[in-house]
Amino acid sequence: MPSPVGHILAGTAVYLAGTKKESRSRLILVITCLAGILPDFDFLPGLLIGRFSTFHHGISHSLTFAMFFTLLVFFVVERVDKDIAGQAAVLAGLSYALHVILDFVGVNEGTRGVPILWPLSDQRFGLNLHLLGYFYYSDRGIWSVIRWDNVPALLRELLVIGSPVLLLLWRERRSTQLAKRMSEANRERAAKIIGAFNE
Q1: Measuring CA to CA, how many Å separate 70 from each of 123, 133, 161?
Q2: Around 148, how many Cα atoms within 13 Å sit in the side-chain half-sphere?
Q3: pLDDT by residue (tens digit) across 127-151?
Q4: How far apart are CA 1 and CA 14, in angstroms?
Q5: Domain that includes residue 115, residue range
Q6: What count of other Cβ atoms lies within 10 Å of the Cβ of residue 11?
Q7: 168-173: long-range pairs with CB below 8 Å, 24+
Q8: Rounded Cα gap, residues 66 and 74, in angstroms
Q9: What is d(CA 196, CA 198) in angstroms, rounded to the nearest whole number?
Protein backbone atom coordinates (compact mmCIF):
# COMPACT_ATOMS: atom_id res chain seq x y z
CA MET A 1 0.00 0.00 0.00
CA PRO A 2 1.26 3.48 -0.74
CA SER A 3 2.91 5.69 1.84
CA PRO A 4 1.58 9.17 2.69
CA VAL A 5 4.02 10.50 0.07
CA GLY A 6 2.35 8.39 -2.63
CA HIS A 7 -1.13 9.41 -1.53
CA ILE A 8 -0.19 13.11 -1.58
CA LEU A 9 1.30 12.66 -5.06
CA ALA A 10 -1.94 11.00 -6.19
CA GLY A 11 -3.92 13.94 -4.79
CA THR A 12 -1.59 16.31 -6.65
CA ALA A 13 -2.22 14.40 -9.89
CA VAL A 14 -5.99 14.71 -9.37
CA TYR A 15 -5.59 18.45 -8.77
CA LEU A 16 -3.41 19.01 -11.85
CA ALA A 17 -5.69 16.94 -14.08
CA GLY A 18 -8.85 18.63 -12.80
CA THR A 19 -7.85 22.29 -12.89
CA LYS A 20 -6.68 24.80 -15.46
CA LYS A 21 -3.52 26.75 -14.71
CA GLU A 22 -5.19 30.14 -14.98
CA SER A 23 -8.01 29.30 -12.55
CA ARG A 24 -6.17 27.35 -9.84
CA SER A 25 -6.93 27.77 -6.18
CA ARG A 26 -4.60 27.09 -3.26
CA LEU A 27 -7.62 26.12 -1.18
CA ILE A 28 -8.57 23.43 -3.69
CA LEU A 29 -4.96 22.19 -3.82
CA VAL A 30 -4.77 21.87 -0.03
CA ILE A 31 -8.17 20.17 0.22
CA THR A 32 -7.37 17.76 -2.63
CA CYS A 33 -3.98 16.76 -1.20
CA LEU A 34 -5.44 16.45 2.30
CA ALA A 35 -8.20 14.25 0.90
CA GLY A 36 -5.47 12.04 -0.56
CA ILE A 37 -4.16 11.14 2.91
CA LEU A 38 -7.27 11.61 5.05
CA PRO A 39 -8.43 7.96 5.01
CA ASP A 40 -5.20 7.02 6.81
CA PHE A 41 -6.07 9.24 9.76
CA ASP A 42 -8.03 6.22 11.01
CA PHE A 43 -4.83 5.20 12.83
CA LEU A 44 -5.37 8.01 15.38
CA PRO A 45 -7.81 6.08 17.62
CA GLY A 46 -5.30 3.22 17.66
CA LEU A 47 -2.67 5.53 19.10
CA LEU A 48 -4.91 6.15 22.10
CA ILE A 49 -4.97 2.45 22.95
CA GLY A 50 -1.33 1.83 22.02
CA ARG A 51 -2.01 -0.26 18.91
CA PHE A 52 -1.32 1.80 15.81
CA SER A 53 -3.07 -0.52 13.31
CA THR A 54 -6.20 -1.52 15.28
CA PHE A 55 -8.54 0.73 13.30
CA HIS A 56 -6.31 1.31 10.27
CA HIS A 57 -7.87 0.41 6.92
CA GLY A 58 -11.34 0.40 8.47
CA ILE A 59 -14.54 1.91 7.13
CA SER A 60 -12.78 5.17 6.25
CA HIS A 61 -11.28 3.13 3.39
CA SER A 62 -14.60 2.73 1.57
CA LEU A 63 -16.15 4.39 -1.43
CA THR A 64 -19.13 5.33 0.73
CA PHE A 65 -16.88 7.43 2.95
CA ALA A 66 -15.48 9.05 -0.20
CA MET A 67 -19.02 10.12 -1.15
CA PHE A 68 -19.73 11.46 2.35
CA PHE A 69 -16.45 13.36 2.29
CA THR A 70 -17.35 14.86 -1.11
CA LEU A 71 -20.61 16.21 0.31
CA LEU A 72 -18.89 17.50 3.44
CA VAL A 73 -16.29 19.39 1.38
CA PHE A 74 -19.02 20.93 -0.76
CA PHE A 75 -20.98 22.24 2.21
CA VAL A 76 -17.89 23.55 4.03
CA VAL A 77 -16.28 25.22 1.01
CA GLU A 78 -19.60 26.68 -0.11
CA ARG A 79 -19.59 28.76 3.08
CA VAL A 80 -16.11 30.08 2.24
CA ASP A 81 -16.24 30.46 -1.56
CA LYS A 82 -19.35 29.44 -3.50
CA ASP A 83 -17.57 29.77 -6.84
CA ILE A 84 -15.19 26.88 -6.19
CA ALA A 85 -17.31 24.66 -3.92
CA GLY A 86 -18.36 22.23 -6.65
CA GLN A 87 -14.88 21.86 -8.11
CA ALA A 88 -13.31 21.49 -4.66
CA ALA A 89 -15.83 18.81 -3.69
CA VAL A 90 -15.40 16.78 -6.88
CA LEU A 91 -11.59 16.88 -6.78
CA ALA A 92 -11.47 16.11 -3.05
CA GLY A 93 -13.88 13.21 -3.54
CA LEU A 94 -11.82 11.84 -6.42
CA SER A 95 -8.62 12.17 -4.40
CA TYR A 96 -10.20 10.38 -1.42
CA ALA A 97 -11.55 7.61 -3.67
CA LEU A 98 -8.16 7.28 -5.38
CA HIS A 99 -6.59 6.70 -1.96
CA VAL A 100 -9.03 3.84 -1.34
CA ILE A 101 -8.41 2.39 -4.81
CA LEU A 102 -4.61 2.62 -4.45
CA ASP A 103 -4.82 0.79 -1.14
CA PHE A 104 -7.12 -1.76 -2.80
CA VAL A 105 -4.66 -2.51 -5.64
CA GLY A 106 -1.60 -2.27 -3.41
CA VAL A 107 -2.41 -4.95 -0.87
CA ASN A 108 0.69 -6.84 0.22
CA GLU A 109 0.99 -10.32 1.64
CA GLY A 110 -0.08 -10.45 5.24
CA THR A 111 -2.29 -7.36 5.03
CA ARG A 112 -6.06 -7.38 5.32
CA GLY A 113 -7.22 -5.33 2.34
CA VAL A 114 -9.82 -2.57 2.60
CA PRO A 115 -13.60 -2.61 3.12
CA ILE A 116 -14.11 -0.81 -0.20
CA LEU A 117 -17.80 -1.81 -0.42
CA TRP A 118 -18.79 -0.91 3.15
CA PRO A 119 -21.70 -0.72 4.25
CA LEU A 120 -22.85 -3.22 1.63
CA SER A 121 -20.18 -5.62 2.83
CA ASP A 122 -17.78 -5.66 5.79
CA GLN A 123 -15.48 -7.95 3.85
CA ARG A 124 -12.02 -6.61 3.04
CA PHE A 125 -10.92 -6.76 -0.56
CA GLY A 126 -7.61 -6.23 -2.21
CA LEU A 127 -5.38 -7.08 -5.13
CA ASN A 128 -1.65 -6.99 -5.38
CA LEU A 129 -0.85 -5.67 -8.83
CA HIS A 130 2.82 -5.40 -7.80
CA LEU A 131 2.85 -1.73 -8.80
CA LEU A 132 4.13 -0.55 -5.45
CA GLY A 133 6.63 -1.90 -2.99
CA TYR A 134 6.09 -3.11 0.56
CA PHE A 135 6.36 -0.61 3.41
CA TYR A 136 7.56 -1.97 6.73
CA TYR A 137 6.00 -0.54 9.88
CA SER A 138 5.08 -1.57 13.39
CA ASP A 139 2.57 -0.69 16.08
CA ARG A 140 5.09 1.67 17.67
CA GLY A 141 3.55 4.65 15.87
CA ILE A 142 3.50 6.54 12.62
CA TRP A 143 7.24 7.15 12.68
CA SER A 144 7.88 3.42 12.45
CA VAL A 145 7.69 3.71 8.64
CA ILE A 146 10.82 5.86 8.55
CA ARG A 147 13.47 3.22 8.03
CA TRP A 148 16.10 2.38 5.42
CA ASP A 149 14.39 -0.78 4.18
CA ASN A 150 11.44 1.38 3.01
CA VAL A 151 13.61 3.41 0.59
CA PRO A 152 13.22 0.98 -2.37
CA ALA A 153 9.43 0.98 -1.95
CA LEU A 154 9.40 4.77 -1.74
CA LEU A 155 11.48 5.08 -4.92
CA ARG A 156 9.15 2.69 -6.73
CA GLU A 157 6.17 4.70 -5.51
CA LEU A 158 7.75 7.93 -6.72
CA LEU A 159 8.22 6.35 -10.13
CA VAL A 160 4.73 4.86 -10.42
CA ILE A 161 2.66 7.64 -8.83
CA GLY A 162 5.04 10.56 -9.44
CA SER A 163 5.28 9.94 -13.20
CA PRO A 164 1.70 11.09 -13.92
CA VAL A 165 2.36 14.25 -11.90
CA LEU A 166 5.48 15.00 -13.97
CA LEU A 167 3.61 14.19 -17.18
CA LEU A 168 0.77 16.58 -16.27
CA LEU A 169 3.25 19.35 -15.41
CA TRP A 170 5.15 18.76 -18.67
CA ARG A 171 1.93 18.81 -20.70
CA GLU A 172 0.86 22.05 -19.03
CA ARG A 173 4.19 23.72 -19.68
CA ARG A 174 4.21 22.53 -23.28
CA SER A 175 0.70 23.85 -23.94
CA THR A 176 1.66 27.21 -22.37
CA GLN A 177 4.71 27.46 -24.61
CA LEU A 178 2.66 26.47 -27.66
CA ALA A 179 0.01 29.08 -26.86
CA LYS A 180 2.74 31.72 -26.47
CA ARG A 181 4.27 30.81 -29.85
CA MET A 182 0.86 30.87 -31.52
CA SER A 183 0.14 34.27 -29.98
CA GLU A 184 3.45 35.65 -31.29
CA ALA A 185 2.78 34.20 -34.75
CA ASN A 186 -0.70 35.74 -34.78
CA ARG A 187 0.73 39.15 -33.84
CA GLU A 188 3.25 38.90 -36.66
CA ARG A 189 0.50 38.00 -39.16
CA ALA A 190 -1.68 40.85 -37.91
CA ALA A 191 1.24 43.28 -38.25
CA LYS A 192 1.82 42.12 -41.85
CA ILE A 193 -1.86 42.53 -42.71
CA ILE A 194 -2.00 46.00 -41.14
CA GLY A 195 1.24 46.91 -42.91
CA ALA A 196 -0.23 45.76 -46.25
CA PHE A 197 -3.30 47.98 -45.71
CA ASN A 198 -1.16 50.99 -44.79
CA GLU A 199 0.90 50.79 -47.99
Answers
A1: 23, 29, 23
A2: 0
A3: 888 888 777 666 565 666 778 888 8
A4: 18
A5: 4-168
A6: 28
A7: 168/13, 168/16, 168/17, 169/16, 172/16, 172/21
A8: 12
A9: 6
Q: Is residue 151 part of a domain?
A: yes
Classify residue 187: in a domain, yes or no: no
Contact in structure between 112 and 54 (CB atoms under 8 Å): no
| Residues 6+ away with beta carbon under 8 Å from 107 | 1, 113, 114, 126, 127, 128
Within a domain: residue 60? yes
Rg (CA), the chain: 22
* Residue ranges, the chain, pLDDT below 70: 52, 110, 136-144, 190, 195-199
Residue 183 domain flag: no
**Number of structural domains in the chain:** 1
